[in-house]
From TrEMBL:
Predominant subcellular localization, coarse grouping: membrane
Membrane topology, from the record: Multi-pass membrane protein
Compartment(s) where it occurs, according to its Swiss-Prot or TrEMBL record: Cell membrane
InterPro entries to which the protein is assigned, alphabetical: EmrE-like (IPR037185), Small_drug/metabolite_transptr (IPR000390), Small_multidrug_res (IPR045324)
Protein's UniProt keywords contain Manganese: no
Membrane-spanning intervals of the chain: 31-50, 57-76, 82-103
Family: Belongs to the drug/metabolite transporter (DMT) superfamily. Small multidrug resistance (SMR) (TC 2.A.7.1) family.
Protein name (database record): Multidrug efflux SMR transporter
Highest rank taxon of the organism: Bacteria
Organism of this sequence: Lentzea kristufekii
Length: 104
């Protein structure tokens, strides 16, 4: 269950990062609300997952999942380009996250 919560918290990290960008410097209220709620839930989930997963592993997975999903959302929204090198690096990052699960 710790891993499920950790992955969900990583997804919420992508939500808050995207909402932060959409807030345009905290000038748009709804993205600010989404940012605050998703960030709070993300960090609470990370903290809970750390009860059963070592801090280094949990943090690396949380950041990795959040980073990959944030890039993918930006690509889908047309805000960022996905070249071959970037795609390969994102796949490698996912592989590292999966590897941490395997060795944990």
């Amino acid at each position: 269950m710790y891993w499920v919560v950790l992955i969900a918290s990583g997804v919420l990290e992508a939500v808050w990062a995207t909402a932060l960008s959409a807030s345009k410097g905290f000038r748009r209220p709804w993205p600010v609300v989404v940012f605050a709620v998703s960030m709070t839930l993300s960090v609470v989930g990370l903290a809970w997952a750390m009860r059963g997963i070592p801090v280094g592993t949990a943090y690396a997975v949380w950041v990795g999942v959040g980073a990959v999903l944030t890039v993918l959302v930006a690509v889908l929204r047309g805000e960022e380009r996905l070249g071959v090198a970037k795609a390969l690096l994102l796949v490698a990052l996912i592989g590292c996250v999966a590897g941490l699960k395997v060795v944990s």
